Amino acid sequence: MRKLKITELKRLSVEEFKEQEKIPLIVILDNIRSLHNVGAVFRTSDAFLVKAIYLCGITSTPPQAEIHKTALGAENSVEWKYFENTLEAVRELKERGFTLFAVEQAENSTMLEKISINKNNKYAVILGNELKGVQQEVINLCDNCIEIPQFGTKHSLNVSVTAGIVIWEFAKQLLSNQFE
């Protein structure tokens, strides 16, 4: 087994990425404090062809050196939009027919492995503030909450790790024909 060189990976250029068909998923960042977390979500969203990221509230927007440090340029490839208030973003997507999931530990939440994604629908996942999570008023507008099962002593994951796990599950189901 030999490690591949960067030139052998056949990655898309930014221009090719922008032309590529995306998965019908928008990631909403609800008041994320850490610019490194924001950058990591951009990078993961690029990797899995996420349609867009909505940056809400106190969440910083590009260009920012700390976002770039972890995004490594993905802030230039992934479409993004800023909303002063997360509720505005959620209401816009509801009006456009998106199914909305807050990623949160909540009553009657659905465990991530039980989510069944329909390729004909459009989805948004909302990731909350590092300390407070997704705002309750935002959860109230969602169709459901997704929870990642955890088995240790901690009851939460870093928001960028959570994003990676959730985005991968959506991409896996939405791009399933590409893995066959």
Instruction: Order the strands across the largest sheet as they lie in space.
Output: 3-2-1-6-4-7-5
End-to-end CA span: 23 Å
CATH architecture: 3-Layer(aba) Sandwich
Task: Please give the share of residues in helix.
Answer: 25-40%
The biggest sheet, with number of strands, parallel, antiparallel or mixed sense and barrel status, is: 7 strands, parallel
* Helix-strand category: alpha/beta
CATH homologous superfamily caption:
SPOUT methyltransferase, trefoil knot domain
CATH topology: Alpha/beta knot
Tally of contiguous helical segments: 7
CATH C-level name: Alpha Beta
Structure report:
There is one protein chain. This protein has 180 residues and is α/β, with parallel strands linked by helices. The chain has one domain (20-148, 156-175): 3-Layer(aba) Sandwich (Alpha/beta knot). Helix content is 33%, strand content 22%. The protein contains 7 helices and 7 strands. A 7-stranded parallel beta sheet has the order 3-2-1-6-4-7-5, sandwiched between helices. Helix 2 (35-47) links the parallel strand 1 and strand 2 (50-56). Helix 2 packs parallel to helix 3 and helix 2 runs parallel beside helix 7. The two termini are 23 Å apart. The model has no long low-confidence stretch (mean pLDDT 95).
Can you describe this structure in just a few lines?
By secondary structure, the chain is of the alpha/beta class. It is built from 7 helices and 7 strands, in the order αβαβααβαβββαβα. Strands 3-2-1-6-4-7-5 form a 7-stranded parallel sheet, sandwiched between helices.
